[in-house]
Amino acid sequence: MTPTQARTFHAVAAAGSFTAAAKALHVSQPTVTTQIKDLEQYYDVELFFRRARGVTVTPTGHELLEIVRRIDAGQKEAVEFLGAVKGLQTGHLRVGAYAASDVMTILAAFSRQYPGPDITVTFANSYILQEQLLDHQLDVGILSQREPMGKFYSLPFRMHTHQVVIFHPHHVWHQQRSITVGELCEEIIIIREPSSEASRATEHILSQAPTTPRKMIRVGSREGVMSAVAQGLGVSTIYDEGIIPAEAVTKWPIRVFNLSSYSG
After folding, report:
1. Distance from C-alpha of 36 to C-alpha of 40, rounded to nearest angstrom
2. How is the chain split into domains, by residue range?
3. Are the folds of 3-86 and 89-159 the same?
């Protein structure tokens, strides 16, 4: 049964005659008659009782009519759904982000304007987020990447973020107001995993030091880094974005270094 036959059958059942159905469909009456006849002959069924003043639906036709009505309702629902998705009235938005505050700021504004769609947020480093975007696991990624990304359509956000040092509140540095790269290398450094953009930025900072770092401990998340620093395992450098728990760690600027000089 083709969509055209289904539409013609529905029109005849609703109008009660081939002539009225033809007018409703803006086709000729013989076209309607032929389509119904071909349908009945192909499946060897009788869908309408022909009478002098029109047609009535047979028992078989009644059952088919219910099916066709459900199909028609489903098509209308599909059209309404696609229209709603186009207008951001419904759907599911999958967002990946590096820092919680960045994504929550954006999503708060988005939700106020478009309250309908469901939202899922995933946190990961920039490398993983890019892989998930390429694999269509995410719709949008909010990254700490500072370089142009030719694989994606991208827009800049929070352009003036810079790298800062964080350390335990009881560390001897608490009396200072900035930290040199040389002083940083004298400490145990908590650093992100190698694929992290933050790790690359930290390694760039350390490359400016006259000596190599005393020791480095790799930790696989921003929250893990801050927790390690809060426990006194070492010091770290992170992007000054998001919420840094002031009661757990202290942050100072890195002397003679600004993120704008970092090109990866």
Report:
1. 6
2. 3-86, 89-159, 163-261
3. no
